[in-house]
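Lab notebook: predicted structure, single chain.

Context: the supervisor wants predicted structures on file for every construct in the current expression panel, including those that have not yet been purified. This is the next one on the list. No modifications to the sequence; it matches the entry in the shared construct table.
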Amino acid sequence: RVAAGEALLEGLWWSEDDVPTPLAEDMARAAVRAALATLPPDGPADGGPRGTARIDFAMGHVMPALRGRVSGRRARAWIEEELP
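Prediction complete. Output recorded below exactly as produced.
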């Protein structure tokens, strides 16, 4: 679908000028860990309609720096691994 022009990769859609370079897995994981280290302590506890409020909050904190550089699905999996 991408080749047919029906869908845009997130990195292309999100960028204004330069397309972000995808990060290697070890660098992306390090970026997730660094962002989680700065996660505000006043975030929500587990709960919410799906029971994922804390992970959703962390995603909102982590993804701005990673958008277009690592898939959201992969970042979410790493966040789930890293959060206590």
